Amino acid sequence: MTSLQLLVIDDEPAIRQVVTSHLRKAGYTVDQASDGETAMERLSRGDVDIALCDIKLPGLSGIELLRQARAVNVDTAFIMMTAFASVDTAIEAIKAGAADYMIKPLNNDELLHRLTKVGDLRGLRAENRVLRRLVLGVNKEVFGFNSPAMREMEHMAAKVAHTNSTVLITGESGTGKGVVARLIHQQSPRAEGPFIPVNCGAIPENLVESEFFGHTRGAFTGADKARKGLFLEADGGTIFLDEIGELPLALQVKLLHVIEQKEVRPVGEEQTRPVDVRIITATNRDLAEMVAQGKFREDLYFRLSVFHIHVPPLRERRQDLSALIKFLLQRSTRRMSNGQEITLDPGVEALLMNYDWPGNVREMENVIDRAIILADGNHIVMADLPPQITKVDQSARLGDGFHSSGTLREQMRKYEAALIYKTIEETGGDRRAAAQKLNIGLSSLYRKLEEIEGQKPLPEEDHSGQEVRQE
Questions:
Q1: Cα–Cα distance list, 202 to 71, 150, 206, 213, 296 (Å)
Q2: CA 369 – CA 335 distance, rounded (Å)
Q3: Whole-model pTM?
Q4: Residue 125: pLDDT above 60?
Q5: Measuring CA to CA, which residue among 329, 340, 338 is closest to residue 366?
């Protein structure tokens, strides 16, 4: 099925009926007009994708109709028809803005081929407009997760990607639910189609329906031109409905209809339009509890949650923190500092590693961006971090060995020492495990202990775990 809306314009009833019947059997939505004036009235609603128009019409000719439509910004592609194989007429039609030109009698297979070509080109242009509007694009920067929970999430995403199942992604704000949705799309058979993200909470309630399903020109006050709607823009691809819990109840009914019937009806339009789109939703709210409270439809909840993926918060996957900090630092550095290398003071990295990140990945990215802006000499120090991180009571986290007196450098040294001793204690004295947990080399750990204690380094271990005696 195709979501294209066609208009057949011909003064001969038999031709209109035959062409319309053939196109409807091919899955198109088709209207008819017998003259230029009637056609112009229909075109002015702004929802016709392609007009199949005879050049010889009573009154307003096909070419005059095309020029008049262009003059009032009707964005409909025209395929012109004529029984006369006139090259001059063909050139005139193309100059007027026609997308293609066919000679009567029409060959059915050739007609479908021409419609597909024009439709594909129109769809590509529409998608490019959406991509520009939403500032989209395939993100080639991929972060590799280390935590078991996120690796399991990736496995589940890969499994569901190759199906057409709806997917519900849950997790706290800022955990990267949109990244998971895009990951599913990119691994799916729809990867070459559009990926349209929509923040349901950011659209005014009175505009949600027209944003989702489109509207005709004049459908309501301010609708000065037709809009296709995000579902039709996503035809052949994926639509990602973020913050689905914010969707008004009235729209929940219509979304359920789209899922079940695979069709939409633009505001102001009488006919429905078929749509082939994969729906992925996300929320940081408890939809089951909202169902119990009567704030979310139970039937829609079951439709959306056929496959459920939960994205855990950063505080529950600390194995990802060190690599994620470096990943975001490198990405922000390329974006904000003209490629100049930005480094982190060890005390800063330790603070970032031990912070709970209530705002998750989004908060971490904001903190790193802010630090890059404030950093002097391309080196981020503790003073470049925001208050919510530096005011954390680290003495309570690390023990009484850390106090906030002294210069910044002295405080950082005390903090680093307290963190090292605390980690060694947590690993039962296993310095190799402590070094791995701190994401530093074993020799670096011994060197830091030597600096802290002001004595000879402790015996190192070889790769077998045995101590190497030092003379």
A1: 34, 28, 12, 16, 18
A2: 10
A3: 0.59
A4: no
A5: 329
